[in-house]
Specification:
Layout (H helix, E strand, L loop, with lengths): L9 E4 L6 E5 L14 E7 L4 E7 L8 E5 L9 E9 L2 E11 L6 H5 L9 H19 L5 E14 L2 E2 L5 E9 L2 E2 L5 E4 L4 E4 L3 E11 L6 H16 L11 E3 L5 E3 L12 H10 L8
Parallel strand pairs: 1-7
Antiparallel strand pairs: 2-5, 3-4, 3-6, 6-7, 8-14, 9-13, 10-11, 10-14, 12-13, 15-16
Helix pairs in contact: 2-3, 3-4
């Protein structure tokens, strides 16, 4: 397991020029609020390496919304970044940001659909992150990304570990009981995520690794666009969200689908594609 959240991260394209981490500061009721002082940001990588301490942020770009720039070099490697946003020495928010090798689809793919021109880029970006999180929960990463798995192994130990995320692209680090291990002592089945070799996993263990597809399959990409557009346009639908069927003046009844087990979006054509790529459940060793 990892200590950072599994969903809701801002995604940043690896290699992008001077990308920004973003946050919206909120009051006790969760509403955006003025910072009331200078906001600085401390950025840390998943392995604990500090990228920047008390880095200056931009002027507010909306009520409570601030941004902190990374250099291009700082965003080259796939990673998960933690950002702590501080005002006058007090941490006002902690956010997580994932540096990825690609996106499920482009913003322009949604903007090309009828009825979506009124939505701003930030709203479309947030919906892209939401549907990507949902699809990756079932299918695994649709683009290259990084994760750090941490677990407490039995005292008697084992030479075997099954990584949660697949396909595995590369192992970047292994530590056992605080000591770094030689990666040449490991063998990895990239499809199943099974790690074996001369490393004896015991006590506190971590493996940092890259995983995911080179890019999403085209039918999965199109299904994600369909789901994102459907979600964005729902507030324009005059039919209430609890209605399960509707009969018009001609006596024609329309049935509505709903999300459920093996039916994550409630859209039949979209869910059929997601379930086609859903990964088998392999236990953790």
């Amino acid at each position: 397991m990892s200590t950072y959240p599994r969903s809701g991260m801002q995604r940043i394209l690896a290699g992008s020029v001077n990308p920004e981490l973003r946050v919206t500061l909120r009051d006790q009721d969760g509403e955006p609020v003025d910072a009331g002082g200078t906001v600085v940001c401390t950025i840390t990588r998943a392995d604990g390496t500090v990228v920047a301490t008390n880095r200056a942020t931009s002027d507010p770009i909306g009520l409570g919304t601030h941004a902190c720039a990374l250099t291009t070099a700082e965003a080259t490697t796939l990673d998960v970044l933690q950002a702590q946003w501080t005002v006058s020495g007090v941490v006002r928010a902690t956010t997580w940001h994932r540096i990825v090798g690609g996106f499920m689809f482009a913003i322009a793919d949604v903007q090309a659909r009828p009825g979506t021109q009124s939505f701003d880029v930030a709203m479309i970006r947030a919906e892209r992150d939401r549907i990507t999180d949902l699809i990756e929960e079932h299918c695994g990463a649709v683009a290259p990304q990084y994760d750090l798995e941490q677990w407490q192994a039995p005292h008697h130990g084992s030479h075997l570990r099954t990584l949660h995320h697949r396909p595995v692209r590369a192992i970047r680090s292994v530590t056992v009981d605080g000591a770094a291990e030689d990666l040449t002592d490991l063998e990895v089945d990239f499809a199943s995520g099974v790690v074996t070799g001369d490393v004896w996993f015991h006590e506190s263990c971590t493996i940092g690794y890259e995983h995911g597809l080179d890019a999403p399959p085209e039918d999965l990409r199109q299904a994600a666009i369909d789901a994102a557009v459907d979600r964005l346009l729902r507030n324009k639908n005059t039919v209430g969200p609890r209605v399960r069927s509707s009969t018009n003046e001609l006596g024609i009844t329309q049935q509505f689908a709903y999300a459920g087990p093996n039916h994550p979006t409630g859209l039949d054509e979209v869910d059929a594609v997601i379930m086609r790529y859903a990964r088998p459940r392999i236990g953790i060793g």
